[in-house]
Fold each of these.
Amino acid sequence: MSMTGVGPAPTAPGDLDAGAPPAIRQGLMRALWRSRNGRVGLVLVVIVVAAAIAAAFGATPYNPQYQNPAALLGAPSWSHPFGTDQFGRDILSLVLDGIGVSLEIACLAVLIAGVIGTIAGVIAGFLGRWTSAVIMRVTDMLFAIPAILLALIVVAALGAGWLNSAIAIGVGYIPIFVRVVRGPVLTLRESGYVLAGRVLGFSRRRLLFRHILPNVAGILAVQVSLALAWSVLAEASLSFLGLGPPPPTASLGEMVSQSGSLAAIAWWTLAFPSVAIIVAVIGFNLLGDGLRDAIDPRTRKR
Amino acid sequence: MSVIIFLVLRLLPGNAITSALGVSAGLLNHAQIVALDHYYGIGEPLAQQYVSWLHAILTGNLGVSLSSRTSVASLVGSALPVTFELAIVAMLLGLLIGVLFGVFGALRPGRAIDVSGQGVSVIGLGVPSFIIGTGIVTLLAAVFQYFPSSEPFASLTSDPWLNFQQIIFPAFTLSLGIGAAIMRTARASVLEVTGQNYVRTARGKGLSRHSVTWKHIFLNAFIPVLTMSGIQLGYLLGGTVIVEQIFVLPGLGRLLVTSINGRDFPVVQSVTLIFATGFVVVNMLVDVLYAVIDPRIRSR
């Protein structure tokens, strides 16, 4: 978010359109790579996304659901690097598949929360006092219930399932997007170039989409990354509680829950799904921190 | 004047809860109508149901559990103390871990206590509580052949020692996440306060190190820590749901999951209401504590 005037003085009215913040113009990736958090986060996220893509194209060493009765609870070996579970399924394949499912649900959840939350936040920040008040009161109500509980309630109402998990997790995160977007929109509304745009008679839509939204894009990117981390965690928690997608779908949280009774004799049933969840959660969190550092130079020192 | 503003602001969250349950009651009641139709053949309008439900709640009647046929009030009554105890012990442990590592780490940056604190914070923030919990249960069972939760839950009054054994591990599991967040806040806050002019002045006029640390740095650095603790309470309440499941504690969280699985909506509604109320009440208490700690807030 950059509110101070940057760049050369505008020469034509068209140039008044405030473009992307400076960090993005200079190359976001380079700025991201400069912070240690961003570097580690990016690497972890790339690993996780690569695993998910591999699983999506069926590029797992075995069919995740294939049960080999000759290899029940096998320790990690060359043929099964992550070992096998109590049904003789290959844990590496299950973990890859689980990451894929987990990311799909997380992305959909963040899409739901991001789109609804951003629209509501922009409206609450940009439009009149009355609309704003209504939106913020609803947000406050949602905030009165911890997000994971909200997710549990939505699952309770809709029933367990792939899509319902995504909706439940998304709903829990909407209020955060609303708050994060509304704050800067409130300041941007009064900023010099938006006022200038108003004077020039730009339409409300042009002001919103070409002046305000690009300047919120930075914090939005940070929040999307943090939301993905939270969503992966929430999805795993829901399926850990048995409220995730039903069994034929691979799920990391369910694997952790299943391994609870086995881990004492077969540590790999607990360790590998756990590591997958942790890598994804830490990866998206660090990426979010790194993005924030890259976009807002004021926090870079820390 | 300030009293009136205070009262109005405090009343808002109360409205928020009732309306929030309006939202979830809307969601729940849809399924509940089906259940009610099934059980009794009634289909009242949502608003009317909500109003009568609210009326019942306010008069102390939480309804009857659909699955166990006992009153929700009695189910909640037996589960609430367990979660209450768990939450309090976890919060205290979290504050202990967070403040200890955060404050002493910031006073000696880069030294052993700071580095170990950072390590704990990475684990606490990055590793989900259900993995820590499952890990602890596995470790206790495998290495020490010890699982205190295999015995029926003992209340604090009936068997304090067994109760302690049963509460301490889940509380520790929860406290890592809270502790990590508090630690980060405490560390940043202490570092910031240490650089302030009045701390330099206090040192300059020859006050003892003890006095500077505790009266000037610690008290001033504590407000953000308190705010963070209030925020973490939401995490804590959500966390009890998962941790009670792992450690088989008969608390509200376990009741919630059981009743969600059993589609027992009167119980789900009541437990959610209690969680939301608890969350709002504690955040109000945090606001009151601000005034206790910081006289500047009191005078306004």
Amino acid sequence: MSEIGRLAVVLGLVVALWGIGASVLGALRRDARLIASGKHAAYAFSGLTGIAVVALLFLLLTRDFNVEYVASYSSSTLPLWYTIAALWGGMKGSLLWWTFILAVCNAVVQLQNRDKNRDQMPWVTATMLIVGAFFLSLLVFVTDPFERLPFTPREGSDLNPLLQNYWMTIHPPSLYVGFVSTTVPFAFAMAALLTGKLGDAWIRTTRRWALFSWFFLSLGNLFGAAWAYVVLGWGGYWAWDPVENAAFMPWLTASAYLHSVMIQEKKDMLKVWNMALVILTFALTIFGTFLTRSGVISSVHSFTQSGLGPFFMGFLLAILTVSIGLLVWRLPLLKSRNELESVFSREAAFLLNNLILVGIAFTVFWGTVFPVLSEWVRGVKITVGPPFFNRVNAPLGIALVFLMGVGPVIAWRKATAKSLWRSFAAPLGTGVLVGAIAFALGVRNFYAVLAFSVAAFALATVWIEFWRGMRVRQSMLGEKPWTALSRLIGKNRRRYGGYIVHVGVVMIFVGIVASSVFKLELQRPMQIGESATLGGYTVRYEGIEVEDDEHVERTFARVSVWDGEGQGATRLGEVYPEKRFYKKPKQPTTEVSIWSTLGADLYVVLGSYDPPTKLAVFQVFVNPMIAWMWIGGVVLALGTGVCMWPSYAERAVPVTSRVPAGSRTA
Amino acid sequence: MQLVASVVRGLRRSSSGVALGACLALASGFGPPAAHAEVATQAQVETDLTCQCGCGLTVHSCNHLNCGSGIPLKKEIAEQIATGKSREDILSYFEGKYGEKILSSPTARGFNLAAWTVPFIAIALGGLIVGIVLTRWRRGAGTGGGADRPGAPPLRGAQADPELRARLDRELAELERRS
């Protein structure tokens, strides 16, 4: 099977190169047969990459330890689900997985556009195949996932125990889908630049793809945070690690694009800026891949140091050179109407929102690369850790949430003093009130008060938007509240879906602020029967047990959780923090146990354990409102779903006749 | 942070820099941590130092079982605090002993100052560009520059008639109020 996989990869590369040549020549000569050949090559590329993935999966599932990748990332005792996850658990497999997702995206794009965008499609095909060919070249010439060993080990080394967690089965695929699908808007942007068709057709075509990428980047980041929270056992979920930063930066620039593209659609402005954001987002995904695979910056998340760094750096430089060159070449055709009636308008608010989003992306980039820069300039290795990122990004985050409240409500073109007052009086009042309540409740951290205040302001603007819309429908159409609400959303999915996404983001923001500022922790050695109190909870060490199987030895403590302390405490239940000792590779891990409520997470870690005396050292954290982060993620997903769901008109009207040539949609 | 402050002052003078000035004034409070002659606490100093075990976390956050770096460092921090030293002095002690890489944030001196200032300078410059662009676009809209420029379609109907334009504005405002 490894031979089939290897052959599929090699043929995939050949087919991709053919597809690039045929598409480019076809576009230049306007030769329909060559263009069709390029398209067929794109489908063949997808099929062959799929065969390669199936082959590697088969080798993993059949435990063929003669294959180096299978021997390195699985074992005969690895559970089925993690055996499947091993497909992306190592560097070689992850590169194949990346290529496969790209191939699927490519096939979907070909199907979606079989009767559309005829001039652009050869360039889209060529661009996507260039990216695919780059990844396949690495698999063919540098790092072969089907490489066979000169001997067959009796057992595999197993998947890194830290990756043997349910979040790791969905975090990398989500993030990869987010990363890879940014190729689609990028390819259409390149096609628009190459063909000179720089209207908003390419934006309309890629609108859902951009949202799709953003959605999966959001999920990928949240799932990664959830993994860090439950697996790393330090009580937090985000450490500003270079690899986390690499996943966060494209999300920021993609968020900026989703906002600024609305200005282009509505006002025919910001054409160059939108093009730049699409290029930047794609380049940042390649930069992220470079970071995780080059070893240039140390990270707990990165794959082992490899020789792939220069290839990725070269590819990144080539992408930037070509795309910026094309952008500069087409600048005369990208002139926009560029009229602004007032700085008090949604256009201006969106520009400020873009400034802050890209500003945060730059800050994260700067902090990530500064250690390397310092080593180059001064020859001194330094650390840029969480205190730096928190300190620099906190005010920017607060400003961003404030603008999230302003943007949707302020009028396009020009807002008068009267309309500003009408729109913002109640939300501002709500924000001030919440700030005052937080202060009255004893919150003395200025930025926490400000953050809660701003979050309340942003939520209030969304609430008022829904409320007003519902009332108008109720009064004009006599609809019942729920009918009015559902139809209000259904008639303008993009707008109200966007509002729901904002609610999700604000919930995540509140969860981050509360869990960072009001976090409590203690570390205590305890004998069985002893208890400790923290943040209104009491935990009592009830006992310790050991379970052993061929794969892992689990030592877990039984800890009862009580609400309150002393005689009046009420028993809530039990948590079971664990120490695991994996047998292949011999590695201990910490499995935290969490008592989660909407108010706070009680996060219990079994730090160490002395078998003869049964003395155990526990770390206990109380993380306020952290559940809001995860619920916010669900709300965000719901809102994105509403935005992406096709409207009735889109479903009812044939695709080819949906948009008359030269027209613009709202 | 003086540089940041001067950029903020400059921006505040420009017509479009008011909101941005407010943002940056807020931001300028977020420079390097002020260690001064502050009394140190164990948690603060643990957060100021990076664990050297490779976990990438601060000494405070590292919870590796029997960590060869974090546990001795925590003991050493406690010893330093017990001597009555200020936070700044304790951090200098650790920097001297283990090198700059032990600090979890760059120092606020020399080349490292760039780590703290460049993001805000970049955002300020970005803000300045946004300000200039907005001012130009406003000027364009005010003079009807967009429609009058060569190649633009001639003004017709409601666009040409100020009265009709005013009515259009009113009706758009009314529409927005109702939606």
